[in-house]
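Q&A log
Question type: sequence-to-structure
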Amino acid sequence: ECNQRLTNLYNQSHVWLLKVSYNICKSKVESEELVSDLYVYLAKKCRPNIWYADSYNLIYLMKFYNQIISS
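Response status: OK
Response body:
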């Protein structure tokens, strides 16, 4: 289930995730690392409460970014 959702997230929202992370970091390399960190986090934490439809809740993922940046 989680692997399929990660695949769907990548296929449906990868470019959007990169754009959001770039807007936060202002660095292509850092934004790619941030997106990679997000995928690793989601793979480790298979949490149904952050699922939405066949992927993940994008609002939650934006909050994840903000927490990473602020720490």
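Response note: The chain is about 75% helix and 5% strand.
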